[in-house]
C-alpha cells in the first residue's frame, strides 16, 4: 500500500520552491540593476574617454601640443575608432540584455571596467607617463565600479588600477618599459628615472585610488542596504495589496496608474500590464467602460456602479487621497468593493417579506372573520 508523504517533507518542498522563487526574483532585480548601470556607463564613456582622445587629436592637429610627438594623431584616431566600436558593441548587447543571463551581464560589467583601465593606461604611456594627468580617468573607472560591485570588488578594481599605473611608472623607471616623454626635454627623462620623484608620485596617486575606492565602496554598500530595505518594504506592501478582498487602483499625482491588485483585475476583467505605467488621460477607454467610470469617481463615501454586460454585478467605488508624512498629496487610491452578494441578499430579503406578507394575508383574514363571528 502506498503511504502518503510525511507532512515535514511536503513543507520542505514548499519552502524550497518559495526560496527558489525568491532567489529568482532577487537575480532578476540584480540583472536589471546591472543593466541600468552598464547603460549609464556606456553613455558616460562617450563623453569622458572619447573626449580625452578628441582633445588630444585637436590639440596635436592645431599645434597646441607641439612636444607630444610620441603620441601621433593617427594613433589617437585609431584608439578613438576602436574605443567607439567596442562601446557601440556594449550598447547593442545591453539593448537586448533582458534576454541574457545574469552571468553574461556581470561579465560585461567587468569587461567595461577593464576596458577603461587598460585604455587609460595606454593613454598615460603615450602622454608622458609620470607627468601625465590622465590618471584622473582611472579614478572615474574606480567610481564607476561602485555602481556595479560591492566594497570587496571595488577594492579589487582599485588594486588592478594601482598595479597597472604603478607597474607602468616603475617599469619606465627601471627601463623595462620605454619612456615616451610628452615635451621631449631632458627634464622629463630625469624625472621619470628619479627615485625621489617616482616614489612619492606613485604612493600619493595609489593612495588616492584607495581613498576613492573606500568611499565609493562604502557608499555603494550603504545604498545597497537601503535598497534592500526599500525592496522588503515594497514586497510587504505588494503582498498586502495582493491579499486584499477589495480591488485597489493606485494613481500617483502625475495621473499615472502605478498599481492595480489582482482582485481589481478580476472584478474589472482587465490586465495590469495594459494599464500600469500609463497616464489616465492617455488610456484608450470606451465611454461606458467600467474602468472609465471608476477613475471618474471622486467621492470618499462611494458610488455604486453596474458594469455593462454583467447583469447582477454591482460595485461600490470610493476614492481616497494619499498623503505623505508631511501632509503632501502623493496620489489617489480607487477602492472597488463588490456588493453583488449584499444586493442579492437584500433583494431576497425584500422578496421574502413580500411573499410572506401575501401568504399570511389569507389565513389572517379567515382568523379575523372567525373572531368577529365569535
In short:
The chain is α+β, with helices and mostly antiparallel strands and 374 residues long. Helix content is 66%, strand content 9%. The protein has eleven helices and five strands.
Overview of the molecule:
The protein has helices at residues 7-61, 73-95, 102-126, 136-148, 151-173, 186-192, 195-242, 262-268, 272-275, 290-295, 340-373; strands at 247-252, 257-260, 303-305, 315-323, 329-338. With 374 residues, it is α+β, with helices and mostly antiparallel strands. Strand 4 (315-323) and strand 5 (329-338) form a beta hairpin. Helix 1 (7-61) runs parallel beside helix 3, helix 3 (102-126) runs parallel beside helix 5 (151-173) and helix 4 (136-148) packs antiparallel against helix 5 (151-173). The radius of gyration is 35 Å and the shape is rod-shaped. The model is unreliable at 1-21 (pLDDT under 50).
